[in-house]
TrEMBL record:
Record domain D-isomer specific 2-hydroxyacid dehydrogenase catalytic: where: 44-333
Family named by the database record: Belongs to the D-isomer specific 2-hydroxyacid dehydrogenase family.
Keyword Transferase among UniProt keywords: no
The protein, known as: Phosphoglycerate dehydrogenase
Key words, A-Z: Oxidoreductase
Pfam families membership: 2-Hacid_dh (PF00389), 2-Hacid_dh_C (PF02826)
Domain D-isomer specific 2-hydroxyacid dehydrogenase NAD-binding, first and last residues per copy: 115-302
A single GO molecular function term of this UniProt record: glyoxylate reductase (NADPH) activity
Cellular component terms per the entry's GO annotation: cytosol
Top-level taxon in the UniProt lineage: Eukaryota
SUPFAM superfamilies: Formate/glycerate dehydrogenase catalytic domain-like, NAD(P)-binding Rossmann-fold domains
Length: 334
C-alpha cells in the first residue's frame, strides 16, 4: 500500500478536513492557515477522504474505512489527549502521523469532576428536578452526605488527577491512589517541574483496596486494552453501598449496564458520568443511566470551557500547519 510522502506540502497547499466543529475562532484561523478547509456537508465521506491531506479532530471517530479511503492523508491533529477514537492500527499501517494536545484541559476536566462529585453528593439535580415538577421538598427529606472529609480514591495519576487532588485538599479529603504505572515519587517531589505541589495521599497496591475504602472513586486513566471494562459488576460490588463513582476519563472504562444495576438496586450511592461507550450521548444511548435519580449525566463536557477549547483547537491547527510547512512535529503519538 502506498505511504504518503513526507516532503513538505506547505500549509497553504493543504486540504484539511474538520471532522467535527472546532471553536468558531479556531475555525476561522484554520481557514486562514490552510489552502482548503472541508466540513462534513461538503460531500460524502468517500468524496471528502479522497481529497484531504490532514484531519483536525476534536470528538467523534476516525474509522479504518475512513483512513483507507484517504490516500493522501498525512496527519491527524487531535485537540485533546486520548486517541482511542482513531483507528490507530490503520493509521500506523498507512503511515499517518497522529498528534495530540496533552495537559491543556486538565484543570477544566478536574473542575468538572469535582462539580459532578458535589452535585451527586448534595443531590442537586435530583432535588432541582423535584421542586421544578411542583413537589414540596422539606430539607429534612433531602439530607445528603456531602464531600467534606470523605475518602476519595483516584484511579490514575496524570495531569487531571493531579489537578483534582489539589482541589480536594480544600475539602480535607483523605486521598487514596491506585496507579501501577506511575513512579512512587509522583506528587511527593517538590523538584518535579510537572507536579510541583506535594499532595498528601496514600498509594494502594490494588484496585480492590481502593474500591473497598473509598467514599468517592474518580477515574483518570486512559482507555486501552488493560482498562477497558476496568469497573464491572465484580468491582462495583466491592464498593460501599453509599459510594459514588465519577467518570470524566473515557467511556468503556465502566461497564454501563453493570453500573445501572448497581445504582438501581441500591448497591451504589450515585454516579456522575461525562464520558460514554457511545458518543454523542443522548436519550436512549445512555440507557437507564439517563433516567435514574442518583445519576448526573453530561455529554463529554470535561474540557469544554470557552478558553480551554479555544486554546486547544488553536494548538491543534498550529501543530498541523507546522508539520505541513516542514517544521518539527510536536506532540506526536505515532
Amino acid at each position: 500500500m502506498t505511504i504518503p510522502t513526507i516532503s513538505p506540502l506547505g500549509a497553504k497547499n493543504a486540504t484539511v478536513y474538520l471532522h467535527t466543529p472546532f471553536h468558531p475562532k479556531a475555525e476561522v484561523y484554520a481557514e486562514q492557515k490552510f489552502g482548503k478547509l472541508l466540513r462534513p456537508h461538503d460531500g460524502s465521506v468517500e468524496e471528502i477522504m479522497a481529497q484531504i491531506d490532514g484531519i483536525l479532530l476534536r470528538v467523534s471517530n476516525i474509522t479504518r474505512d475512513m483512513l483507507l479511503q484517504a490516500p493522501n492523508l498525512r496527519i491527524i491533529s487531535r485537540n485533546g489527549v486520548g486517541v482511542d477514537n482513531i483507528h490507530i492500527p490503520t493509521a500506523k499501517e498507512r503511515g499517518v502521523i497522529v498528534t495530540n494536545c496533552p495537559g491543556g484541559n486538565a484543570q477544566a476536566v478536574a473542575e468538572l469532576a469535582l462539580t459532578l462529585a458535589l452535585t451527586v453528593l448534595r443531590r442537586v439535580v435530583e432535588v432541582d428536578n423535584r421542586i421544578r415538577s411542583g413537589e414540596k421538598v422539606p430539607s429534612i427529606t433531602a439530607l445528603a452526605p456531602g464531600l467534606f472529609g470523605r475518602t476519595v480514591g483516584l484511579v490514575g495519576m496524570g495531569d487531571t488527577s493531579y489537578e483534582l487532588a489539589k482541589l480536594l485538599l480544600a475539602f480535607n479529603c483523605p486521598i487514596l491512589v491506585y496507579s501501577p504505572t506511575s513512579p512512587l515519587t509522583r506528587w511527593t517531589d517538590t523538584n518535579d517541574p510537572k507536579y510541583p505541589t506535594t499532595i498528601p495521599h496514600e498509594r494502594v497496591d490494588s484496585l480492590e483496596e481502593l474500591l473497598k475504602r473509598s467514599d468517592v472513586v474518580s477515574l483518570h486513566c486512559p482507555l486501552n486494552d488493560s482498562t477497558r471494562g476496568l469497573i464491572g459488576k465484580k468491582e462495583l460490588e466491592i464498593m460501599k453501598n453509599d459510594a459514588v463513582i465519577i467518570n470524566t476519563a473515557r467511556g468503556g472504562i465502566i461497564d454501563e449496564r453493570a453500573l445501572e444495576d448497581a445504582l438501581e438496586y441500591g448497591k451504589l450511592g450515585g454516579a456522575g458520568v461525562d464520558v460514554w461507550e457511545v458518543e454523542p450521548a443522548y436519550g436512549e444511548t445512555m440507557g437507564k443511566l439517563g433516567k435514574l435519580r442518583n445519576t448526573v449525566v453530561l455529554p463529554h463536557l470535561g474540557g469544554s470551557t470557552d478558553s480551554v477549547t479555544l486554546d486547544g483547537c488553536m494548538k491543534a491547527v498550529d501543530i498541523m500547519a507546522d508539520y505541513f510547512d516542514g517544521k518539527q512535529v510536536r506532540n506526536r503519538v505515532i
